[in-house]
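BUG: 3D viewer hangs when loading the predicted structure for this chain

Environment: internal workstation, default settings.
Expected: structure renders.
Actual: progress bar stalls at 90%.

Input used:
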Amino acid sequence: MTNTAPFAAPESGLIVFDFDGTITTKDTFALFLRYYAGLLPWFFKVMRLMPVFMAYKLGRIDRHAVKAAVIKTFFKGETEENIFAKAQTFANDVIPPLIRPLAQECFDQKKQDIESLYICSASITPYLRHWAVQQGLPEDHVLAVELEFESGVATGRIAGYNVWGENKVRRIYQAFNSDYVHIKEAYGDTRGDLELLNAAEASYFKPFRLSPS
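Structure tokens produced before the viewer hung:
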């Protein structure tokens, strides 16, 4: 897992954006799974995962277990080179039309303080970091789910944990090897962002939608 601990958090505090649903109009992780696998393989993999989804609905497993099962099913045995190549084309071709105009406008404004600007997401890093770098953001300013690789091949495991709920705040603190980091502003749109929003001095829930739905 990427660890940015060698430097300190900006004294002015962090500006942290969730990605899916906040900056974008859709869940990019779900879209990337279909993009990566292809339609027919994606369908069969989703069918294999149905018992996992049912177990989650029944409260028998948590979100981390679901994310771990999905990543194992879709990425175990895949080469790092192939994953990152497809992640790059996904970031180039699929993500741009999904960006909310108001979110892009706000993000561009916040880039004036680039050292404070971070993305914290439950999506995976390969395509998120490519998109962020295109936006002028350092890749280590993306705090998201890391895929584990050994000798250039995906193990099918998460390197760390699902960056959702309280784990968003945990991941931010871990990035700076600190028990506390001042979060000046936070932007989110779901239950998985509430702990992040509550930890911020100023929080914005679904701020880039034309209606609050």
